[in-house]
Amino acid sequence: MNKVVQKVVVASTNPVKVEAALSGLQAMFPQHEFQVEPISVPSGVADQPMSDTETLTGAFNRMCNAFDAHPQADFWVGIEGGVQALHQELAAFAWIVVRAQGLVGKARSGMFFLPPAVANLVHQGVELGEADDRVFGQANSKQNGGAIGILTDNVVDRKSLYEQTMKLALVPFKNETLYIQD
């Protein structure tokens, strides 16, 4: 039996984000095959979102811009990483927004607190990936394990964090009748 092939537009060319979106879709919908098209679209927010709301807005805008750029697809995915100050510390997380079949699914990843040296650079206007590279002596860490990968020795990496979030964002599509509004 041939599997149904569905086109997915991921609003990022970062291989970690693209692989996480694909892995999440494959886990939630094993009966389908997915053809992924990564594209670069603007988020409409700062390069380093500094709040939960700004990060969600960035993910939503990316999903919308992916839809506008390629309306002939089955899924559109926006992924945005961000930070937020909490209790005099800086927490990192991501939002994923998925559109398909007239529905929109959203989920936020788990969050973790950044070391002070990284947080200080981010507060000075340095993007988190660049701050990680400087503090940890890495190169292009945001296209690898990211801050969480560095801090956990890849027990949890950026891809696994985003993959779980992708699965959560797909909940409405596994339960359409519960989420479709008249």
From TrEMBL:
Annotated source species: Rufibacter sediminis
UniProt entry tagged with the keyword Magnesium: yes
Reaction(s) this enzyme catalyzes, per UniProt: ITP + H2O = IDP + phosphate + H(+); XTP + H2O = XDP + phosphate + H(+)
Function: Phosphatase that hydrolyzes non-canonical purine nucleotides such as XTP and ITP to their respective diphosphate derivatives. Probably excludes non-canonical purines from DNA/RNA precursor pool, thus preventing their incorporation into DNA/RNA and avoiding chromosomal lesions.
Gene field: yjjX
Keywords: Hydrolase, Magnesium, Manganese, Metal-binding, Nucleotide metabolism, Nucleotide-binding
Domain annotation Non-canonical purine NTP phosphatase/PRRC1: ranges: 11-173
Family: Belongs to the YjjX NTPase family.
Cross-referenced InterPro entries: ITPase-like_fam, Non_canon_purine_NTPase, NTPase/PRRC1, YjjX_NTPase
Name listed for the protein in its UniProt record: Probable inosine/xanthosine triphosphatase
Binding site for substrate: S12, T13, N14, P15, V16, K17
